[in-house]
Design a protein that fits this description.
single chain, 71 residues, mainly beta, 4-stranded mixed beta sheet
């Protein structure tokens, strides 16, 4: 995703995991419904749509690395 297509976004329940400035083949081995462990920084993303005056708050993880579970 992103203007330069260099951002990975994984959504699971109420947490979004993001990795910025990745190469095109980052996480190519992952398929739908794979289980992964993520190492990263927990953050809160808060932004306001000034047109509607609605503030959105989401939990997110800024991915440092991930590990695909086997099995």
């Amino acid at each position: 995703i992103g203007k330069n297509k260099d951002t990975i976004k994984i959504v699971c329940d109420d947490i979004t995991a993001l990795k910025f400035k990745v190469k095109e083949d980052y996480a190519d081995e992952l398929e739908d419904f794979d289980i992964i462990d993520v190492v990263g920084e927990l953050t809160i993303n808060e932004w306001t749509n000034w047109k509607t005056k609605v503030t959105t708050v989401t939990n997110q993880v800024l991915i440092q690395d991930y590990f695909k579970r086997e099995g």
